[in-house]
Design a protein that fits this description.
221 residues, alpha+beta, Glutaredoxin, Glutathione S-transferase Yfyf (Class Pi), Chain A, domain 2, 2 domains, four-stranded mixed β-sheet, 4 strands, glutathione transferase activity, GST_superfamily, GST_C, Glutathione S-transferase
């Protein structure tokens, strides 16, 4: 089910904490526009208008609501677009995997501020996350079997983030020990508007140094 109302995503012009939301919107085929933050005044305007429940971004304007908190917004999209299971144990697996994705991607979010790929790799826990996901995906198309869930999309985003930092050749080499996960990555990448968003993102986002500067001057200067 596509989202009919206009959707606006408020965040800086980079991946950060927001990219799982943009990727989820693209995966379900929901068009959205980005309102990029650059200065302290941009964030202050949202806060002064009482549009940020906890004073933080990302914020997604959608369905006549202003959604904050990434995991809660992902779950809203999952329920709305039939990408969340009815079975309680399957719900747990989906929720646990989405939470693991949030943990796994945390070292990647530091890259624009350090530009240190060696540090990113040292802190990216292959044994804890990709190895487990590969095990869960062995012999099945998606985490829950034949039916795609939002957890599949969040796993895809972590790998996409890694590939975005290190390039396709390094990414494929570093993940070659996880064939089921790589096959899943290629499969999920065909969903909705993901290919289009990847192309659009390459020109919509600023470079890493500019992104880091915008974040710092918005939050700290």
């Amino acid at each position: 089910m596509a989202t009919s109302n206009p959707i606006t995503v408020h965040y800086w012009a980079g991946r950060g904490m927001c990219e799982p939301l943009r990727v989820a919107l693209a995966a379900v085929g929901a068009p959205f526009t980005n309102q990029f933050l650059e200065t302290k005044a941009d964030l202050a305007a949202l806060r002064d208008a009482n549009e940020l429940t906890y004073g933080q971004v990302p914020m997604v304007e959608m369905d006549d609501c202003k959604f904050v908190q990434v995991q809660a917004t992902l779950l809203y999209l999952a329920h709305k677009h039939n990408m969340y299971p009815a079975d309680l144990k399957a719900q747990y697996l989906c929720d646990a995997t989405m939470a693991a994705c949030a943990d796994a991607r945390r070292p990647l979010t530091r890259y624009p501020f350090t530009l240190d790929g060696t540090e990113v790799k040292a802190n990216f826990n292959f044994a804890r996350y990709p190895a487990k996901w590969n095990e869960l995906l062995s012999g099945r198309d998606y985490l829950l079997g034949a039916n795609v869930s939002m957890a599949d999309v969040t796993m895809w985003e972590v790998l996409d983030f890694y590939e975005d930092i290190f390039g396709t050749a390094v990414f494929r080499n570093d993940f070659k020990a996880y064939p089921a996960l790589l096959a899943h990555y290629d499969r999920v990448g065909q969903m909705g508007n993901l290919t289009q968003w990847q192309a659009a993102r390459s020109t919509a986002f600023v470079d890493c140094a500019t992104y880091a500067r915008h974040v710092n001057q918005t939050l700290y200067e």
